[in-house]
Specification:
- The protein is α+β, with helices and mostly antiparallel strands.
- The strands form six sheets. A four-stranded mixed β-sheet has the order 10-11-15-14. It has a three-stranded mixed β-sheet with strand order 1-9-8.
- Strand 12 and strand 13 form a beta hairpin.
- Helix 2 runs antiparallel to helix 3.
Length: 385
């Protein structure tokens, strides 16, 4: 997606309230949802664009970063066209969070022309449960991208009945309570009137049918507990707390319904040498008094191997040197490596070393400058005159 202004994407002003952001996303998501526009690639791209804008503007921290720095302020996370942006997951999460928002389910039912409720019963309520997994990654794995194989416990399709829940040759009848839709309507009273919600049918458990001769192994559920290995591909540049979604790797659905998803939450392990800020890295480099005074050439580590840097003569402790494009690369841009010089003071000295330092301390060049006024003191004086 091109770097189009997110407020323009949602058709709102920069000072729009969170409620206005929600309503704008809902309006456009309804209009450009892929289920309503099958085969329309332009609508699909618009849906992705809307989802990306909402994902940033609905998050207070990300919105602040975007308002201050634009698209550069949210790159490296889900925003700004991140490779793992999942518009459908954002859509489902929005629906889950705001399911009681003025009869939200029925709003989406109406926009799908009456067919969305049936699809919810078949694919959303009946689908297998989503599973969560926390994945710890080193900075090196994040920098280059990686592939992890994990073993998870999940509900898998029953091999005896092929996931149908019925014995071979068995039959099933349509549920009379929900008429085969898998859900029933529940009316609740609210201050503003009646709110209608769709819930799974209590008789058939949301399946829409009753199995007459259930499978002995899975008791008619169509799934059993198992363990499976799942391959997870991690794109370069992910951050701590970021979520990735592995489609269909959650629990198998009941009686042949679609499987849920595996939601992977990334946790970045602390690094022994580097500190990370988005795509930039910080390295604190200890040097001796002699190196600080005379200057030196040193080998320092980077994520791609050691490089040589020049320490200028007379450098002060706390000075930061910048190495461009030596930070973290995410495909779209590459960060920098900042080297903070810290002059190391020896703590254990021999008598000879002490004597030499005492001789040096008497020389004019070794005497530090007198204390001067700090920045804030200078500001105060400027206002006094």
């Amino acid at each position: 997606m091109a770097d189009r202004d997110y407020y323009e994407v949602l058709g709102i002003q920069r000072g729009a309230s969170p409620e206005e952001v929600k309503k704008a996303y809902h309006r456009f998501a309804v209009k450009y949802h892929p289920d309503k526009n099958p085969g329309d690639t332009a609508a699909e791209e618009r849906f992705k664009e809307i989802s990306e804008a909402y994902q940033v503007l609905s998050n207070t921290e990300k919105r602040t970063q975007y308002d201050r720095f634009g698209h550069d302020g949210v790159r490296g996370g889900y925003g700004a066209g991140a490779p793992d942006l999942d518009p459908m997951e954002i859509f489902r999460e929005f629906a889950r969070r705001h399911s009681g928002w003025g009869g939200f389910e029925d709003i989406f039912s109406s926009f799908m022309g009456g067919g969305f409720d049936a699809r919810r019963g078949a694919a959303s309520e009946r689908r297998g449960e989503d599973l969560g997994l926390r994945l710890d990654l080193s900075l090196e794995e994040i920098a280059r991208g990686s592939e992890k194989t994990v073993r998870i416990r999940r509900q898998v399709s029953c091999s005896d009945c092929g996931g149908s829940g019925s014995r071979p040759g068995g039959s099933a009848t349509r549920c009379s309570q929900c008429n085969g839709t898998g859900e029933i309507k529940v009316v609740q009273r609210a201050l503003w009137g009646q709110v209608v919600h769709s819930v799974p049918c209590t008789r058939c458990g949301g399946q829409g049918r009753i199995i007459d001769d259930p499978c002995a192994r899975c008791s008619g559920h169509g799934r059993i507990e198992g363990r499976e290995e799942v391959v997870i591909r991690i794109p370069a540049g992910v951050g701590s707390g970021q979520r990735l979604v592995k489609r269909g790797a959650g629990n198998a659905g009941r009686q042949g319904a679609p499987a849920g998803d595996l939601v992977i939450t990334i946790r970045e392990k602390p690094h022994e040498i580097f500190e990370r800020s988005d795509n930039d890295l910080l390295l604190r480099l200890p040097i001796s008094i002699v190196q600080a005074a005379l200057g030196d050439k040193m080998q320092i580590p980077t994520l791609e191997g050691p490089v040589e840097i020049k320490i200028p003569a007379g450098i002060q402790s706390g000075k930061i040197l910048r190495l461009r494009d030596r930070g973290l690369g995410t495909g779209r841009q590459r960060g920098d490596l900042y080297v903070e010089v810290r002059v190391w003071t020896p703590q254990k000295l021999t008598s000879q070393e002490k004597k030499l330092l005492q001789e040096l301390s008497g020389m004019p060049a070794m005497r530090p400058p007198k204390p001067g006024k700090g920045f804030f003191e200078k500001v105060k004086n400027a206002f006094r005159t």
